[in-house]
């Protein structure tokens, strides 16, 4: 695989970063993942807008323009012949020169890394056909979940906890309400209404969520942005989650309780089709 590191396109084995890089020492880095369909980037502008916001919120300086980001993404797709998968992008505050809690001096260049990942079963894997089973775990992450940092340890532990319980993924719960999934935004369906938690610093502002809500509004479908509980989800007709790498993913079980007939629900399946169609149409 050819990867991008600080201006160079090089084989992954040659891509090396300092042990003093703050991304490594302090988790001081942000990231983005953009989905690739038919060799094209989906929701690209949204991902770049969120990247710029994450960088701004953490005062990480990175002077790569949107046009340059697009050129780097496209070049990596071309060099790696990627048609179905994603491009992973990470920007850290760079090399502090030594371990120090304080930020390095202004002008210290950030470390910029991009690479491609193939996801051959993204469109039709077993999760899509069977639906996913989730368990709940307490949300023990920090309180700026709106910033997409690489501090993914709790998400990683949550996914391992789910796997060890024989399930597929975890939902985070705080103050009695579901915040979001370990790497996705969550929804429940009651009758003809789709319910999802409103945006705040408690959750990541999903780019797929934003695109889906736009699609729902265009079709005059009923949406309620309000927090919901595990019990609400267990009593719902359907549930699903969204993320760039999973689009719309049906959920069939929540903490051991089967939803409906235990198969992916019609609303989730229909929204998945519409979402993928729209993503394809607008991919660049
Ligand atoms: N929430 C969390 C915690 C995530 O990690 C992700 C995926 N990175 C999402 C939501 C979904 O965001 P997006 O639709 O932009 O992929």
TrEMBL record:
Coiled-coil stretches: 41-68
EC number: 2.6.1.42
InterPro entries (alphabetical): Aminotrans_IV (IPR001544), Aminotrans_IV_CS (IPR018300), Aminotransferase-like (IPR036038), BCAT-like_C (IPR043132), BCAT-like_N (IPR043131), Class-IV_PLP-Dep_Aminotrnsfr (IPR050571)
EC class of the enzyme, as a word: transferase
Catalysed transformations (reactions): L-leucine + 2-oxoglutarate = 4-methyl-2-oxopentanoate + L-glutamate; L-valine + 2-oxoglutarate = 3-methyl-2-oxobutanoate + L-glutamate; L-isoleucine + 2-oxoglutarate = (S)-3-methyl-2-oxopentanoate + L-glutamate
Pfam family for this entry, one: Aminotran_4
Highest taxon, organism lineage: Bacteria
GO cellular component terms attached to this protein's record: cytosol
Keywords: Amino-acid biosynthesis, Aminotransferase, Branched-chain amino acid biosynthesis, Coiled coil, Pyridoxal phosphate, Transferase
Known function: Acts on leucine, isoleucine and valine.
Family membership noted in the UniProt record: Belongs to the class-IV pyridoxal-phosphate-dependent aminotransferase family.
Protein name: Probable branched-chain-amino-acid aminotransferase
Species whose genome carries this gene: Paenirhodobacter populi
Lineage of origin: Bacteria, Pseudomonadati, Pseudomonadota, Alphaproteobacteria, Rhodobacterales
């Amino acid at each position: 695989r050819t990867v991008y590191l600080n201006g160079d396109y090089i084989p992954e084995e040659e891509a090396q970063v300092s042990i003093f890089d703050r991304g490594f020492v302090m988790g001081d880095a942000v990231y983005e993942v953009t989905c690739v369909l038919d060799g094209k980037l989906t929701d690209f502008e949204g991902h770049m807008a969120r990247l710029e916001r994450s960088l701004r919120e953490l005062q990480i300086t990175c002077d790569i323009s949107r046009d340059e980001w697009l050129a780097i993404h496209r070049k990596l797709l071309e060099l790696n012949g990627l048609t179905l998968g994603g491009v992973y992008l990470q920007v850290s505050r760079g090399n502090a020169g030594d371990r120090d809690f304080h930020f390095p001096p202004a002008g210290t260049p950030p470390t910029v890394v991009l690479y491609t990942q193939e996801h051959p079963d993204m469109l039709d894997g077993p999760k899509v056909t069977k639906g996913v089973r989730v368990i709940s775990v307490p949300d023990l992450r920090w309180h700026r979940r709106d910033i997409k940092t690489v501090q993914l340890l709790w998400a990683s532990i949550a996914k391992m906890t789910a796997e060890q319980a024989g399930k597929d993924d975890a939902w985070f719960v705080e103050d009695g309400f579901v915040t979001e999934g370990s790497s996705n935004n969550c929804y429940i369906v009651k009758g003809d209404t789709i319910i999802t938690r409103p945006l705040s610093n408690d959750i990541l502002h999903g780019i797929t969520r934003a695109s889906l809500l736009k699609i729902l509004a265009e079709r005059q479908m009923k949406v309620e942005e309000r927090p919901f509980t595990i019990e609400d989800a267990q009593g719902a007709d359907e549930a699903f989650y969204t993320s760039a790498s999973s689009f719309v993913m049906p959920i069939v079980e929540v903490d051991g309780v089967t939803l409906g007939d235990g198969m992916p629900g019609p609303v989730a399946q229909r929204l998945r089709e519409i979402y993928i169609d729209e993503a394809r149409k607008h991919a660049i």
